[in-house]
């Protein structure tokens, strides 16, 4: 009983019109032509004069391309798609109702529906995404032409004409990530393509390189540019070195002198103490003598 039901359901299903579209997003390069694939199957008798196809941009509710009575019907086509769309008329009889869209723009991005009617009807939806590669980024810096270690400089990284917005990564020669200390701004031109500008404020280290990497998330390509800043010489400029050495020598001399003075003072006070001690001992001895001589008469 159940098997019979299933079989009949399957039979009905196989008779119903089915629309096939790619189910992953279609990424199209800006300015190129693309085919949005859409095919259908499941009709019992194929009669082209009964076929109707409606391509629409779902989000904007705009008509992209329509077909019925065996011809294109473009009176209600949105202006922005004028002269940029076509169906493959020779392929319609084999169920291929794919849309050719020419010179893809950023604003074309969105979900397209392919609606097919013949005996019954059905539809499929395709997400189309636009991508444009950025120019190779350039890195410049403002300020001193001869930067020194410890100088704070602003490095600017610029790239143009990409879509969508890029990720920026700043690193130094040893791969340290400086991105958190950079600002990123992007401005779209009238075609929707971005100019990316990132400014990194960094305290220069001697002889270091700073690089800016741009990644277009949709293309995965890495635009990459770097700047090598050879900050003037050593971290210890010669003048500072001599001043330091001079100061150190002075300090040393001072310390020695101080030590010598102290030593003498200690020695003097020691001698004084010894002299005092001796004097005291002498006194005691004398007192003892006197005491002795004083007791003598008593004894005798
Ligand atoms: C359209 O379909 C054809 C045939 O299946 C395939 O070769 C082509 O890559 C598809 N194009 C796109 C943009 O998906
Ligand atoms: C539909 O026909 C066009 C033109 O021949 C072809 O480029 C495209 O790949 C076809 N699509 C499918 C899904 O077969
Ligand atoms: C196709 O459909 C048209 C209009 O419905 C009809 O006049 C014509 O006879 C049909 N052709 C076939 C082969 O069924
Ligand atoms: C489309 O092409 C026709 C004929 O070449 C032209 O008259 C019309 O201005 C074009 N429309 C657009 C929007 O480019
Ligand atoms: C970012 O800047 C802060 C403050 O100037 C500094 O403490 C920190 O070390 C910097 N981060 C990196 C990765 O250099
Ligand atoms: C670099 O740092 C930024 C911000 O702190 C972070 O988002 C990013 O994932 C880091 N990238 C790498 C490659 O470490
Ligand atoms: C600076 O970098 C260059 C190239 O990496 C290296 O040859 C040189 O020894 C470095 N100088 C200093 C002072 O670190």
TrEMBL record:
InterPro entries: BTN3A2-like_Ig-C, Ig-like_dom, Ig-like_dom_sf, Ig-like_fold, Ig_sub, Ig_V-set, IgSF_BTN/MOG. Residues 281-292 have a biased composition (Basic and acidic residues). Pfam families: C2-set_3, V-set. Keywords: Immunoglobulin domain, Membrane, Signal, Transmembrane, Transmembrane helix. Its main location: membrane. Residues 31-131, 137-228 form the Ig-like domain. It is found in: Membrane. GO terms for cellular component: external side of plasma membrane. GO terms for biological process: regulation of cytokine production; T cell receptor signaling pathway. PROSITE patterns: IG_LIKE. Residues 281-300 are annotated as: Disordered. This is Ig-like domain-containing protein. The lineage of its organism: Eukaryota, Metazoa, Chordata, Craniata, Vertebrata.
